[in-house]
């Protein structure tokens, strides 16, 4: 099983970033996938999830600003992040409770 995140970087408040997660080594289309994040000095928190049927769920802190999606043909999960705030600064991980998580990608929101 391999989960590889990409797309992180520096964004200004109010800006946008799109994260990607490339999955391999398992039957991707059958699994729900989530994005987690770990802010500096804090524990990891759940951000959002997408089921195998593409039903989505979001934490209250990102609802209306973030959009999770998946492409089963490409074994990819995406996270579109809009209207970013400094509180979104964190390492973002692609994850599944049974399969684990990737190494993460850093997102920094700062002017």
Task: List its salient traits.
single chain, 111 residues, mainly beta, 7-stranded mixed sheet, 4-stranded antiparallel sheet, 11 strands, 0% helix, globular
| Tally of alpha and pi helices | 0
Low-confidence stretches: none
What is the share of helical residues? under 10%
Q: What would you report as the Rg, rounded to the nearest angstrom?
A: 13 Å
Give a topology summary:
Elements: E1 2-6, E2 9-11, E3 17-24, E4 33-38, E5 45-50, E6 56-58, E7 66-71, E8 76-81, E9 90-96, E10 100-101, E11 105-109
Parallel strand pairs: 2-11
Antiparallel strand pairs: 1-3, 3-8, 4-5, 4-9, 5-6, 7-8, 9-10, 9-11
Give a description of the structure:
The protein has no helices and eleven strands. The protein is mainly beta and 111 residues long. The strands form two sheets. Strands 2, 4, 5, 6, 9, 10 and 11 form a seven-stranded mixed sheet that branches. A four-stranded antiparallel sheet has the order 1-3-8-7, with no helix packed on it. It is globular and about 40 Å long. 30% of the residues are buried. A hairpin with a 5-residue loop joins strand 5 and strand 6. It has strands at residues 2-6, 9-11, 17-24, 33-38, 45-50, 56-58, 66-71, 76-81, 90-96, 100-101, 105-109.
Short note summarizing the structure:
This protein is an all-beta fold. It is 0% helix and 51% strand.
């Amino acid at each position: 099983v391999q989960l590889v995140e990409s797309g992180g970087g520096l964004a200004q408040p109010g800006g946008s970033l799109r994260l990607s997660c490339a999955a391999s080594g398992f039957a991707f289309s059958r699994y729900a996938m989530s994005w987690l994040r770990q802010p500096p000095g804090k524990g990891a928190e759940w951000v959002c999830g997408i089921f195998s049927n593409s039903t989505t769920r979001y934490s209250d802190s990102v609802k209306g600003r973030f959009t999770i999606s998946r492409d089963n043909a490409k074994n990819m999960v995406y996270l579109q992040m809009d209207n970013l705030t400094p509180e979104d600064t964190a390492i973002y991980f692609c994850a599944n409770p049974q399969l684990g998580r990737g190494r993460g990608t850093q997102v920094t929101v700062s002017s």
